[in-house]
Design the sequence.
């Protein structure tokens, strides 16, 4: 593999890692709220979170590009902070990936929280645990399978993105050129051998990830 | 200021709770009623798991009034749920320690070892909840609620989810609890049997309203209650084993207070269950097991025949039946008779009569 291939792999892992970490932090309160609320807004918010599942990635990329561009609201904001604009930067890719992979983190967490039910929370309260204490001492451990699933899916889904990256990140080596884009470039340049190497690596990676998910998290052993 | 003062009002479509209770600050208070009577809701209001308008003062400490409501985790309660609801991710020891660790050391009155011994769960400490039997799980649940040293222990039908065998396994532990600790207990139950065995004080709920509240003995002897208790109507008397008859495997239990009773102190023969003389015993006599006669019959199989005074005669739920309340040397007794018998014997308040008791159950 060429240095640019290795660079793309490293960049991909970095992007997926940062995105997943951010998603777990952002996704937890959203999933908690969705799992527990009886509010009218549960439906609309849940639908917005799930949008990336059905929308073509190019559509998400397009709107993010417009919003984060120099004339978009997000772009104006980042410029006013002196940060410049996000498109065609690594930071921009992270923001886009967070949106793109959000449902793959929120939904497993939401399911895990819902499965816990009301009772363990009530028990913890009768044993003097404050709500925050309860979250860390009861909810997190009980939702562990959900967190494992969310982490793996969020990471893997970010690794696999292509359309959004192309729209928002372009093709800048070591900045926004991730593996999926690199493969595309190889094929465009008729470098099938290199494309094979990278593609086969992706297949092996995807298989290993899913294997890990299914062996570490057997649904039949939860209770 | 000992005692619990609870006033709650709650309105749901199809269900409302409206109670105003003063309860003793010691002993076991049974909240008794059929399902849907609001007994569990009342318990959850005391715990703060259910919000309702009203006020709650426990041992002089305000837990809820018009302006403030203490959240559940700030109330000094212990709560035992119907299913033990142990944390599945913690072993037995860490389940027990979960609450203990969150109680400041100065407030700990019930030691971990004491609770473990009381509930007999020492051999289970390393086990995970899913490897325990239902009875064991519930014992752990009770111990876990005890080690937070609650000012009040709330128990929501702790035996209801268990089969008869497991109930028999746990009841003795509950009785020990009652005798050993000075923590007031609110015990929700729909089983007259459990109430008779465990309670000192009885609150009867129906459709979210309190229909009776008072000491167990006097409340059970009230004639307006059989309607709620049905076949289980009867009295519970506390007494003391005073004699063992080894030949016939019988024990004599003295009940009632009055020494000036015509026949001497009132005592009853019951099956000997191995309790020594001096053991404080509780007996239960069902209304359907008491018959009345104008003369004493020593030529019958009935072992316990007591001289009694009629206190009150009232209608029962069926038009053919009457309930008669008797005084036996200061102890109350109720008898379920046909109205024809009441008329035939000319029973009215003040009349002296012989009460023949067919069955006496020693329940602890």
Sequence:
């Amino acid at each position: 593999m060429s240095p640019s291939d290795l660079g793309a792999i490293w960049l991909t892992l970095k992007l997926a890692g940062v995105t997943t970490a951010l998603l777990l932090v952002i996704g937890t309160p959203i999933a908690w709220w969705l799992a527990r609320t009886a509010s009218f807004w549960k439906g609309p918010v849940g639908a917005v979170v799930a949008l990336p599942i059905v929308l073509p990635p190019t559509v998400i990329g397009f709107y993010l590009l417009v919003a984060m561009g120099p004339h978009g609201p997000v772009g104006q904001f980042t410029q006013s902070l002196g940060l410049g604009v996000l498109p065609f930067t690594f930071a921009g890719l992270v923001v886009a990936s967070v949106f793109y992979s959000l449902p793959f983190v929120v939904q497993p967490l939401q399911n895990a929280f819902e499965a816990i039910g009301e009772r363990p929370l009530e028990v913890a309260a009768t044993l003097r645990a404050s709500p925050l204490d309860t979250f860390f001492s009861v909810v997190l451990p009980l939702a562990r399978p959900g967190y494992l699933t969310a982490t793996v899916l969020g990471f893997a889904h970010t690794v696999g993105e292509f359309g959004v990256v192309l729209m928002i990140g372009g093709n800048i080596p070591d900045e926004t050129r991730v593996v999926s884009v690199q493969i595309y470039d190889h094929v465009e340049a008729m470098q099938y051998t290199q494309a094979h190497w990278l593609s086969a690596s992706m297949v092996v990676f995807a298989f290993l990830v899913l294997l890990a998910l299914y062996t570490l998290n057997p649904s039949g052993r939860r209770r | 200021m000992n005692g619990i003062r609870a006033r709650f009002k709650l309105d749901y479509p199809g269900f409302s709770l409206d109670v105003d209770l003063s309860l003793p600050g010691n002993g076991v208070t049974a909240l008794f009623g059929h399902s849907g009577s609001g007994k569990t809701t009342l318990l959850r209001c005391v715990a703060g798991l259910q919000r309702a308008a009203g006020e709650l003062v426990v041992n002089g400490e305000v837990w809820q009034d018009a302006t403030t409501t203490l959240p559940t985790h700030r109330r000094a309660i212990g709560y035992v749920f119907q299913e033990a609801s142990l944390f599945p991710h913690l072993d037995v020891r860490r389940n027990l320690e979960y609450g203990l660790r969150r109680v400041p050391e100065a407030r700990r009155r019930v030691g971990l070892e004491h609770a473990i011994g009381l509930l007999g769960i020492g051999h289970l400490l390393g086990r995970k909840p899913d490897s325990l039997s239902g009875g064991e799980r519930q014992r752990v649940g009770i111990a876990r609620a005890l080690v937070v040293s609650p000012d009040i222990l709330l128990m929501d039908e702790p035996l209801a989810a268990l089969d008869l065998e497991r109930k028999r396994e746990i009841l003795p532990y509950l009785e020990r609890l009652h005798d050993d600790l000075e923590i007031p207990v609110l015990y929700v139950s729909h089983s007259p049997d459990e109430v008779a065995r465990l309670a000192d004080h009885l609150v009867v709920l129906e459709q979210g309203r309190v229909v009776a509240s008072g000491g167990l003995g006097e409340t059970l002897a009230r004639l307006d209650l059989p309607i709620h208790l049905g076949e289980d109507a009867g009295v519970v008397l506390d007494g003391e084993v005073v004699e063992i008859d080894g030949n016939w495997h019988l024990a004599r239990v003295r009940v009632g207070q009055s020494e000036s009773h015509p026949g001497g102190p009132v005592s009853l023969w019951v099956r000997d269950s191995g309790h020594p003389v001096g053991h404080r015993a509780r007996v239960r006599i069902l209304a359907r097991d008491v018959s009345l006669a104008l003369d004493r019959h020593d030529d019958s199989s009935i072992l316990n025949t007591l001289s009694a005074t009629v206190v009150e005669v009232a209608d029962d739920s069926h038009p053919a039946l009457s309930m008669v309340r008797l005084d036996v040397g200061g102890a109350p007794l109720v008898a379920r008779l046909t109205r024809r018998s009441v008329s035939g014997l000319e029973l009215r308040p003040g009349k002296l009569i012989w009460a023949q008791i067919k069955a006496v159950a020693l329940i602890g």
